[in-house]
Structure formats: structure tokens, C-alpha cells
Write a structure and sequence with these properties.
It is built from no helices and 8 strands. By secondary structure, it is mostly beta strands. The chain has a single domain (3-72), classed as RNA polymerase II/Efflux pump adaptor protein, barrel-sandwich hybrid domain (OB fold (Dihydrolipoamide Acetyltransferase, E2P), Beta Barrel), CATH 2.40.50. Strand 4 and strand 5 (39-44) form a beta hairpin.
Length: 73
């Protein structure tokens, strides 16, 4: 099975995580919300599949390019 690692597009703080391992997602579904420069940014699923791993938690600081969520298609 193919895997896609969703990386943080910008540095910031994780506000909400909307998925957990085992969840099924479709392309475009909301995965998490990152606050950066006092703006909330929605991170969407780039592919459809099942959530294999979630490496983030609310309140966590994250750097741009850091792997957050693994989706298995």
C-alpha cells in the first residue's frame, strides 16, 4: 500500500487534530488546524485513505516540513 506523509506547510502551533489512527478520510477532508501568525490554517488530506499514524497533538509547536500525519491508500 502507498503511504503519504502530510508535512506541515508552515511553522506554528497545533490547535486541533480532527483525525485519529484508523479513521478513513477522503481527499480534501480536514486533518488538523495550525495557528501561525495569529491565523488559523486548515490542513487538508492530499489523498483518500486510512490514517495510519498521527504524530501531533493539540498545543504542540511544529516546524515547516515536519511530518504530521501518515495516510495509507
Amino acid at each position: 500500500m502507498a503511504q503519504e506523509i502530510v508535512e506541515a506547510p508552515l511553522a506554528g502551533k497545533i490547535i486541533r487534530v480532527h483525525v485519529k489512527p484508523g479513521d478513513k478520510v477522503s481527499e480534501g477532508d480536514l486533518l488538523c488546524t495550525i495557528e501561525s501568525l495569529k491565523m488559523e490554517n486548515s490542513i487538508l488530506a492530499p489523498i483518500s485513505g486510512a490514517i495510519k499514524e498521527v504524530r501531533i497533538a493539540p498545543g504542540q509547536a511544529i516546524k515547516a516540513g515536519e511530518g504530521m500525519i501518515t495516510i495509507e491508500s
